[in-house]
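User: Study the fold:
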Amino acid sequence: MFLSSRLNVLDEKGNALVEFVLILPLFLLLIFGIIEVSLLLSNKMILNYATYMGARSGIVNERYAEESVDTSARLIIAGTSDLKSILPGLGGIVFSTDVTKKGNDLYVETEYKAPGLFPLTSKLMGRSLPFLPFSWFELKSNYKMRIEK
């Protein structure tokens, strides 16, 4: 009887290590996913602000609205450290603006391809090409302002 209870104790010697190895990848994926989402939300707020400032610049300089919107939004983004990250292989910040005037309204749409920080989480949540080792997230922002005369 003493021998059988002693064998049971020896059989459970590595349980904590096995449980740790099973849970660690899921825990790391959760932590890296939280970091990735928080960086995306930060980038989205910066993009919204750049779109707003671009639209404001467009209604102030109504004659050159398209150039003014693009220049203003790019200056905001160039001055912000969070959006300075560069997609490897694509060369530079992938950012575009679209300006449309309908009557007295100025519509501004900006799009930014934000690179993923962690390969696994960005592959799971973002867009990627099979031959590239990185992936990105497409962030868009729209703003409408009325031109008052």
Remarks:
- The longest helix spans residues 15-60.
